[in-house]
Amino acid sequence: MLLDATTKGNWKGVYGGEGFHTVSDVISYPAYAQVKLTGQTSNTWTASTSDVRALQKASASDRVAGRWESSSFFTLDVNLTDGQTHRIAVYGLDWDTNNRVQRVDVLDWATDVLLDSRTIYDVKNGVQLPGTLVRGEGADPTSDSAANEAYDFAGDTYDFYDRILGRNSIDGAGMRIDSSVHYRVRFNNAFWNGRQMVYGDGDGVIFQHFTSAIEVIAHELSHGVTQFTSRLEYEGQSGALNEHYSDVIGVLVKQWKKQETAATADWLIGEGLLGPSVKGLALRSMKAPGTAYNDPRTLGRDPQPSHMKNFVNTDQDNGGVHINSGIPNKAFFNVATALGGFAWERAGKIWFNAFTRRLQVNSDFHDAAKATCDAAAELFGTSSPEQMAVADAWQKVGIKTVVAGPMISIKAPATQPSAPPPFAAVAPRPRPRKSR
């Protein structure tokens, strides 16, 4: 849960008596909860719905206080509208030069979990990030469709990671999801910059606005997950795996949102992003790599291979990260369709386990094949139908793997690594790698 004062009024911090910290002048939070102050008399915040993701002051004159538990956070007791009392820890106070709290992160003391927290900024066709805050967690929709799409689809991605994969936001610890829309003028891209999401509006000719596709938003946010887990280097096969994992989560979030099975899904990444005159369906097809678009006037032909025999050696695109990702993409499609049903229930969990726990910075396609086989064994049993389906799927794209062997678990790094560079929305047409 996050309360962001930048659009909700100023939070002025002062030290009160008996070690309490007092904040005042909080205005217009969504009306969701009742609050009882720790160590002080009861103070009610307006309660109107069962949604507990944000709080509202009953009036601008109300004051709320919490007890300092350490130098970094204080606590208060919250009576939520579910009838239960939750202890809340407030931490991460970010002060500006005028002694105003600009950011306050809030999590449930009992579960140590931050609920999905989103902030949407408008760069207004400039380049200075993050821009002007236009929507915070729990706030009503704005008149800007791009801001609303960024907000809604970031929430869907958060919910998918939380409910299906058991991960608490990008960093696994409740990281707030910040997004900036209307970046530059006619900017043909969307990217995760290591701290937040950034969206261009497209030029209206080759690309439409990039917030319109839920799978693109889930794809980009998943680069953040890779940043905090395997840290796959954005070059060559490891870079293609980086792109592949983001495609997997992107398409799974879309399927989960639509409640589509592996058999009924379209398996397209970036459906609807191409301009009206471009001959193509999407940016990529996981079902049939190399068939997403074919327009000699604009993008050329989709260069993705679906088998190792067609692996592209090139100096472009960081060694073909958006090109050769078609090979593991096809492998995942093979697994999901072989197992049937909802792809996120078995294939997705196998891939999440492998890509967040078992791969390392320089892992290649063979490492990924072994990691997914090991993950399938851990989750569903050695020689299980799931593990055999994984091994068979990789073999069908030209990568043989061993279904038995020691399982490894790679812990996330203690320090935050740098993020990969922004991706090209469509892979460039490859040139052969120069001989050395």
Chain-wise SSE layout:
Elements: E1 2-3, E2 11-15, E3 20-24, E4 33-36, E5 42-43, E6 64-68, E7 73-80, E8 85-95, E9 100-108, E10 118-122, E11 132-136, H1 145-163, E12 177-181, E13 190-192, E14 197-199, H2 214-228, H3 236-258, E15 268-269, E16 284-285, E17 294-295, E18 300-301, H4 317-320, H5 326-339, H6 347-357, H7 365-380, H8 385-396
Parallel strand pairs: 10-12, 12-14
Antiparallel strand pairs: 1-9, 2-3, 2-9, 3-6, 4-5, 4-7, 6-7, 7-8, 8-9, 10-11, 13-14, 15-16, 17-18
Structure description:
The chain has 436 residues and is an alpha+beta fold. Helix content is 26%, strand content 18%. It folds into three domains: 107 residues, no CATH class; 95 residues, Elastase, domain 1 (Roll), CATH 3.10.170; 161 residues, Neutral Protease, domain 2, CATH 1.10.390.10. The protein has eight helices and 18 strands. The strands form four sheets. A six-stranded antiparallel β-barrel has the order 2-3-6-7-8-9. A five-stranded mixed beta sheet has the order 11-10-12-14-13, covered by helices on one side. Strands 15-16 form a two-stranded antiparallel sheet. Strand 7 and strand 8 form a beta hairpin. Helix 5 runs antiparallel to helix 8 and helix 7 runs antiparallel to helix 8. The termini are far apart.
